[in-house]
Amino acid sequence: MTEYLVPTRASETQFTEKRSTFIGRVFPVETEEEARARIDEVKKTHHDARHNCWCYLIKDGPVRYSDDGEPQGTAGQPMLGVFQKEGVTNVCCVVTRYFGGVLLGAGGLVRAYTQSAKDALDAAGVSTVRRWLELAVECPYSFLERVKLACAAQGGAVGEIEYAAAVTVHALLPEEGAEAFRAGITELSAGAFSAVELGEVRKAVPVDQ
After folding, report:
1. For 71-130, what is each residue's pLDDT tens digit?
2. Distance (Å) of CA 12 to CA 16, 42, 95, 106, 122
3. How far is residue 120's CA from residue 192's CA, in Å, rounded to a whole number?
4. Which helix (H) or strand (E) holds 198?
5. 3-state helix, strand and coil shares in percent for the chain, rounded to the nearest 5
6. DSSP H helical segments within 1-97, as ranges?
7. Could you write out the DSSP letters of every residue in 132-156?
8. How far is 147 from 169, CA to CA, in rounded Å?
9. Which among 36, 46, 101, 106 is least buried, having the fewest CB atoms inside 10 angstroms?
10. CA 123, CA 119: separation in Å to the nearest integer?
């Protein structure tokens, strides 16, 4: 089963190092064109910055980076290394630097751009994309938390929740946990309600869920 990691959401972080301001951004992207568009957006927003360094990794596609005027090897490549180390793909990162008048040196630049990329990734969060079996459980509100726990017990994740006269929980289960989840729901409800399989889906689910 193919699984891979992606950013959960777009993010923006900022810190100052010796009067230089570093603004890190991470974007989830699916294509090189989308990554290029994100880079262009940031460059337009921060057209007055000294440097807009960037990198992107596309699953089964191109891997690119740019130092954008910084000394070679001090920005784009260290940023790229953050995502390669974490195993995250389908990601675009842009770090904007407003120069503060104090030179950081090659080592200082590598550390600053690495930190900026890592901070932005931490803020974005990481999700696992994989194949799930989606099952729906319609139940009284009083059972909601117990259904969530039953899902988690089988290595699953809670997807959409519909609130109406009763609550419907869309549970995402690994194939090997679906049958046990069904049995657990039937036992939990003493047969009053059950888990109905809706089919297979491929979704990104936060790794800390």
Report:
1. 999 999 999 999 999 999 999 999 999 998 888 999 999 999 999 999 999 999 999 898
2. 14, 11, 9, 24, 10
3. 46
4. strand 195-206
5. 35, 40, 25
6. 32-45, 76-86
7. EEEEEEEE-GGGHHHHHHHHHHTT-
8. 8
9. 101
10. 6
φ, ψ for residue 48, nearest 5 deg: -90, 0
Strands 195-206 and 126-139, how do they pair?
Answer: antiparallel
Q: In this structure, what are the phi and psi dihedrals at residue 162, rounded to the nearest 5 degrees? A: -100, 130
119 contacts 7 by C-beta, under 8 angstroms: no
Number of alpha carbons in the 13 Å side-chain half-sphere of residue 7: 28
Which residue type does 92 have? C
pTM for the predicted model, two decimal places: 0.80
Closest CA relative to residue 3, chosen from 180, 137, 129, 90: 129
Using an 8 Å Cβ cutoff, are 139 and 42 in contact? Answer: no
Q: Which two tokens stand for residue 27?
A: 């974007």
- Give the DSSP letter of residue 71: P
Q: What is the mean pLDDT of the chain?
A: 94
CA–CA separation, 153 and 132 (whole Å): 15
Provide the pLDDT confidence category of residue 61 given band limits of 50, 70 and 90: very high
